[in-house]
Amino acid sequence: MRVGAVRYLNSKPLIHGLAGADGVDLLLDLPSRLADRLARRELDGALIPTIELLADPELMLVSDACVASRGPVRSVKTLFRRPPREVQKVALDEGSRTSAALLRVLLYNRFGIRPECISLPIGSGPESVRADAVLLIGDRAMGADPGQYAEVWDMGAEWRAWTGLPFVFACWAAWSGATREALAGVLGRARDAGVASLAQIAEAEAPPLGLLVGDALEYLTHSLHFRIEEEELAAMGRFAAYAAELGLIPHDPNLPRRLRTDYGRPTANR
Ligand SMILES: C=C(O[C@@H]1C=C(C(=O)O)C=C[C@H]1O)C(=O)O
Predict the structure, then answer these.
(1) What class of enzyme is it (predicted)?
(2) In sequence order, what DSSP letters do the residues of 85-117 get, joined into one string?
(3) Which CATH superfamily is domain 2-68+167-258 in?
(4) N or C terminus: which one in the chain shows less Cβ crowding within 10 Å?
């Protein structure tokens, strides 16, 4: 099976051990590109930005393994050059879909703002764009220097403060129930093995990213949450409702069915 996953530090615990898994052909890319590849059916399943799953009535959640946070996430930030309530133009990290939608949802609901949106290419830093705010995700967001900005939002913390809920940034999705049956167990086991090996992952991954091992371990252990539980499901539903209200995705009355996580049981009665 062709499976795509995000290459950031945040998803290493989900794919630790997956490369060697039987029948899994693993490909790593940016979250936004994985969503496009899954849409073109080049992949059977992929770890994609949550908003892409919420937006497509044919996609199904495949596993309860995810990239979420229950408070500050540290690797998804909006850097404001002027106060948030004055923002007119935002630059959105090319790798992001979900956090891009999250920023628009928060600006609209808190300040009634629908900003002009431009893309911040992967190879370009925040200083390269003229915008009132810049959204950065992934490893490069962790190192962003807050000193030179009017305000910095940690997007996990902002969502939590506003809704009281966790936030699910990325999750596994597939087109068919058959793929879901085949992948659910593999992905869940890979996550369990990864979460049991966070120290080892931090040690291997931190140096090339210019992070201290302790810092990377703290991020993987405390900032991130790798399992979709009741609260995460509620958060996905709430986020879908806000995004639909803003016209970013269609409203899908079947969403709860697509987000079921009672995998591994016979499909007949679903
Ligand atoms: C937590 C993060 O979540 C990422 C954010 C995504 C998005 O905004 O679309 C997609 C995948 C996640 O890996 C991060 O970038 O650090």
Answers:
(1) lyase
(2) GG--EEEEETT-SHHHHHHHHHHHHHH----EE
(3) Periplasmic binding protein-like II (3.40.190.10)
(4) C
